[in-house]
Amino acid sequence: MQKNQVRKAVIPVAGFGTRLFPATKVVKKELFPIIDRDGRAKPVIIAIIEEAISAGITEVGIVVQPHDREIFEDLLKKPPKKELLKKLSPQNQEYSRYLEDLGSKITFLLQEEQLGYGHAVFCAKDWVQDEPFLLMLGDHVYASDIQKSCASQLLDVYEQVNQSVVSLTTKPAEILHTAGCVTGVWQKLNSILEVTQLYEKPTIEYAQQHLRVEGMADNDFLCIFGLYLLSPKIFDFLAEHINQNLRERGEFQLTSSLDRLCQEEGITGYVVKGKCFDTGLPDTYRQTMIDFRNF
Prior knowledge:
Blueprint: E1 8-12, E2 33-35, E3 41-43, H1 44-54, E4 59-64, H2 69-76, H3 82-87, H4 90-103, E5 106-110, H5 117-122, H6 125-128, E6 133-136, E7 140-144, H7 150-161, E8 164-172, E9 180-188, E10 192-200, H8 204-210, E11 220-230, H9 234-243, H10 255-265, E12 267-271, E13 274-278, H11 282-291
Parallel strand pairs: 1-4, 1-6, 4-5, 8-12
Antiparallel strand pairs: 2-3, 6-11, 7-13, 8-11, 9-10, 9-11, 10-12
Helix pairs in contact: 9-10
C-alpha cells in the first residue's frame, strides 16, 4: 500500500461488556477506573486515547452505541459545571482542561446495531477513508518496556515495512481459546514476523498442528497484543462479509478479514516490547488495578 502518515486511530467501545455484568449494566467497561503512575484515577478509555496520542495520532474515532454517545461526550467534550470545577484542586482543574484538549481530537462514530467487532470496525470506514489507521481494543491498556510507547513501536515498524502490522506477544497454549493467534516466518528473530496465517481462538490441537513458530517453546504461541496498524483495504473484506452475511459465532468478526488482508497485501507481525493489561474480565481487571500503576 502507498505509504501515508498515520493520523487516525479507531477505538470500538460499542460492546455490551457481558463479561463484566452486572457492573456494566450501569457503567461502560471503558469507563471503569484504573490508577496510573501518577496515582490518578482515570477511565480506561483515557489511557487508551493517551496511548494513541503518544504515537503521534492526531484524530481518534470512538465507535459507540447511539445511546452511549452522551456519556462519552460528558467525559471528553464538556467541562464540569463552574461550581464543581472550583471544588477541584488546581492540579485537577488543569487536568479538566487537558481532557477538553483530548476531546477536541475525538470524533464519535455510531454503531446502530451491535453485530460484532468486525462490524464495529467497519462503522469507521467513511471516517477513516483511504488512510492507514491504528486500531485499538477498548478494554486493553499498555505499558512499554522501553522509552517509546507500545503504539509508537508499531508505527515505527509500519514505517519500515510499509504494510499492515499486528502487535504480538507470547502466550501459553492453555489460554489460546481467549486470543487471536498467528504463525509465520521470522524476519528478525523474536521481533519481526512475516505473518502467514491469523486464527481466532484456536483449540490447542489446531494451534499445535498449524500455528507453531520456529524457535518457540512447545507450549508458547504468538498471540495478538491488542494493537493493529491496518491498511484501509480491510474495509473491503469486512464489507464483503457483511454484505454476504458471513458470520462467525453469530457475529461479524475481524480476524477472518485480517487473514484475507494477509493473503492479498501481506501483514507483518511485531513482538511488542511491553505489557498489555486486559480490563475486560473480572480477574484481569483486578490484576490491572494492582499492576498497571507500578509497571
